[in-house]
Write a structure and sequence with these properties.
By secondary structure, the chain is an alpha/beta fold. It is built from 14 helices and 11 strands. The protein starts with 5 loop residues before the first helix and ends in a 5-residue tail after the last helix.
Length: about 350
């Protein structure tokens, strides 16, 4: 399949390697973003949990240490209203794990909030002007997308189906991240979370390439240069890689998580909603097995993350690998302990002429 956009896409983004580092909240450091961008890829800063003022400060700091392109990523979820009965029922499901760790549940205000993208974030980006703003779970309100594009930023967002890719293109996306079912972390689905409607990366990429008139980035199940080359052969202009970067020393990964990554293989991962209310691929553990049948009773995102936050923190503090979510894709078994810049070189070795 002819790759219509690859050279133009890389040139426009000032990339010399077709590698985008996934913006994994909580695990990506500024050092990783800098290393990836300096190596010719696109480093992605997770911006969802940053206060608006910190968005500009972080981008300014990155600009001092890399001349390469910088992306900032945000979740595009909507605010939800808590349902008391559902909240009480779900917290009852979690209570045995709180008791096990000797932690009391806070039934009052959530201990963790995930801001909805709005005016403050948009204004901060207009001032800081990163090269790329990427989204997950759809797009924010149309006026914000229009303002970001008018300020010269390239807009990317994730699609898990052809229908989502078309929806994103119609609303102003300059590129589509085709997220296959193998991908670790939260699924980017926003029109439907039915996993039966989603497929693997190598089946999804050519279908989206044929369906849209903007560049496509492949994501999910890509852990070495062979996967990168395959995705580009199928028409992707670049790839977005997450799990492989968690093995890098620049990643901020707790010891139990890093140990689990090194031991895991593809059959050890599972897609579950129990950690947040949204489908996400993680390394299976006792928590995912115990609550597997309770997935349809999880409070909606982001309230699910708020309910889990103190439990996750206590689990990691105890050094446990059986409760906290260890996000990982099905290519986890290909992970290597390389520096972020070296990983960019490794991934792109067979992908460029």
């Amino acid at each position: 399949m002819a790759n219509r956009f690859r050279n133009k896409f890389l040139t426009e983004l000032r990339m010399t390697k077709p590698i985008i580092q996934a913006p994994m909240i909580g695990y990506v450091t500024e050092q990783m973003v800098i290393a990836v961008s300096n190596a010719g890829g696109l480093g992605s800063l997770p911006g969802t949990l940053l206060p608006p003022q910190a968005i500009g400060e972080s981008i300014a700091l990155l600009r001092k240490r890399t001349q390469g392109p910088i992306a900032v990523n945000f979740l595009a979820h909507s605010a939800v209203t808590p349902e008391t009965d559902l909240e009480v029922a779900w917290r009852a499901q979690l209570e045995p794990f709180f008791e096990e760790l000797g932690v009391e549940q806070d039934m009052g205000s959530p201990s963790m909030t995930i801001p909805v993208f709005g005016e403050a974030q948009c204004a901060a980006l207009e001032r800081a002007r990163p090269d790329v703003v990427s989204f997950h779970l759809g797009l924010p309100a149309e006026q914000f997308v229009a303002r970001l594009r008018a300020a010269g930023m390239i807009i990317l967002s994730s699609a898990t189906t052809v229908a989502e890719a078309r929806w994103l293109e119609e609303r102003g996306c300059d590129g589509i991240v085709a997220q296959g079912l193998e991908a670790g972390g939260h699924r980017g689905a926003f029109l439907s979370t039915n996993l039966a409607e989603q497929c693997g990366t190598m089946a999804l990429v050519p279908q989206i390439v044929d369906a849209v008139s903007v560049p496509v980035v492949a994501a999910g199940g890509i852990g070495d240069a062979r996967g990168v080359a395959a995705a580009i052969t199928l028409g992707a202009s670049a790839v977005q890689v997450g799990t492989a970067f968690l093995f890098c020393p620049e990643a901020q990964v707790p010891v139990p998580y890093r140990e689990a990554l090194c031991e895991a293989r593809s059959m050890d991962t599972v897609v579950t909603k129990i950690y947040s209310g949204l489908p996400a691929r993680v390394i299976a553990n006792r928590f995912t097995r115990t609550l597997h049948d309770a997935q349809d009773h999880v409070v909606p995102f982001p309230l699910g993350m708020a309910a889990m936050a103190p439990l996750i923190g206590a689990s990691l503090k105890a050094g446990s690998s059986e409760i906290a979510p260890f996000w990982a894709g099905q290519a986890v078994g290909l992970g290597k302990s390389l520096g972020a810049a070296e990983l960019v070189e490794h991934l792109s070795a067979a992908a460029l002429p």
